[in-house]
Design a protein that fits this description.
By secondary structure, the chain is of the alpha/beta class. The protein has 14 helices and five strands. It has two domains: 169 residues, no CATH class; 196 residues, 3-Layer(aba) Sandwich (Trna Endonuclease, Chain: A, domain 1). A five-stranded mixed sheet has the order 1-2-3-4-5. Strand 3, helix 10 and strand 4 form a beta-alpha-beta unit. The longest helix has 21 residues. The termini are far apart.
């Protein structure tokens, strides 16, 4: 009997999930699971952005079981007796599918590149892989155990998984619209809101991108309001996690002139004091350009590493003599206060920052739902929207 094409398995489950959501938000389908089964799926999907490797491994396992009902999907490596290559299956079918349907949750190549998943042990209940969240780990292993030991339906689990993932995406998207207050906001209040956002209690990575978005948003306004930037162009924001994209970058925020030559740039650090080595590294990036001004900003306080102030000043002076570029080192708070004073209406900054958060959330996996939700709460409470 010919095996079903894995891509068709995934597409079919996704279409079924969409139809169930159209019918009644997926409730009647999800209610066919018992409480434990449903809770296992909810536990995993609620933290899907933080555990993309687990999502990939679970989807791979379910699709593989549908394709080959004789395969014990707990044995996910060929070197395990009776095993198959979960990584190969994921790389060939699941990750490409996620890049089309669930781009924010897609791994770059495979979920099996995650250390907690890439273990030479079966996905049995005693699996030793160190998945950080114990509840997520238990839910993942219990689902596979349910399929293999209790003969639970893998297709039903796959459709249920997709229903919950689609709902997660739809929920996130509906929460991204804020009403910006009409009253003029004080600079101190804006700074307070930003600091609460930068230093929120987040799980996983991404917070380091928040001050970058703030500075970028300021520059978007400065480009049209400040004479220094007339005729200049603000380059698009780059990803923090894509080395290839950043290969020719000299900063997180970059301004070029009419000849597309670097005019000004800003490098932003989060919770890291600036030292002499950072400035030397920055110089290596921009020394062959005609850039006039280069900022190194950080959210750390104090903003210069203890004992480094003289070294920092010496290197700045050296760069000025050798190159002519003015290197400016500062904390993010005084810099933001200075920039906000230059704006005709500081409220515009809040609108820009919100818009750019939404944009980065939709384009990359650096900004996560937790960052969006935290900002929504800050705006609601502090700005009384």
């Amino acid at each position: 009997m010919a095996k079903e094409d894995p891509t068709k398995i995934l597409e079919s489950a996704y279409r079924s999930a969409v139809e169930e959501i159209k019918k009644d938000s997926g409730e009647s389908f999800l209610n066919t699971f018992d409480n434990r089964q449903r809770n296992w799926l909810i536990t995993i999907t609620e933290k899907s952005e933080l555990f993309k490797g687990v999502i990939a491994a679970l989807t791979t396992s379910l699709a593989k079981k549908i394709e080959d009902p004789t395969q014990d999907i707990r044995y996910h490596k060929e070197e395990l007796k009776g095993g198959y290559s979960g990584r190969t299956f994921d790389t060939k079918y699941v990750t490409p599918f996620f890049k089309k349907k669930f781009r924010r949750l897609a791994m770059k190549e495979s979920g099996w590149l995650t250390r907690s998943i890439e273990q030479p042990h079966a996905f049995t209940l005693d699996f030793p892989g160190k998945i950080r969240d114990k509840a997520v780990k238990e839910a993942f292993l219990q689902i596979l155990n349910d399929i293999e030991e209790n003969k639970a339906n893998p297709q039903k689990y796959l459709i249920g998984l997709f229903i919950l993932l689609i709902q997660q995406i739809n929920y996130s998207q509906t929460k991204l619209i804020y009403r910006i207050p009409s009253q003029r906001l004080s600079i101190d209040l804006i700074i307070k809101c930003l600091l609460l956002h930068f230093f929120g209690k987040y799980h996983g990575s991404g917070a380091s991108k928040l001050p970058v978005i703030a500075i970028y948003s300021i520059y978007e306004i400065l480009m049209k309001d400040v004479k220094r930037y007339y005729g200049k162009k603000l380059k698009l924001m780059r990803s923090h996690i894509s080395p290839d994209m950043r290969a020719k970058a000299i900063g997180d925020v970059e301004i070029v002139d009419e000849n597309n030559e670097f005019f000004e740039a800003v490098e932003i650090k989060h919770s890291i004091p600036i030292d002499a080595t950072m400035i030397e590294d920055a110089y290596q990036k921009f020394k062959d350009t005609p850039i006039a001004r280069y900022y190194l900003l950080t959210t750390a306080e104090p903003y210069i590493k203890q004992g480094e102030k003289q070294k920092v000043n010496d290197i700045i002076e050296k760069i000025k003599k050798e190159h002519g570029c003015e290197v400016i080192v500062n904390g993010i708070v005084p810099s933001l206060k200075y920039y906000l004073r230059l704006l005709r209406n500081p409220n515009e900054f809040i609108a820009r920052y919100t818009k750019n958060l939404e944009s980065e959330f939709s384009k990359t996996t650096e900004i996560k739902r937790q960052h969006i939700e935290t900002w929504r709460k800050i705006v609601k409470v502090k700005l009384k929207t």
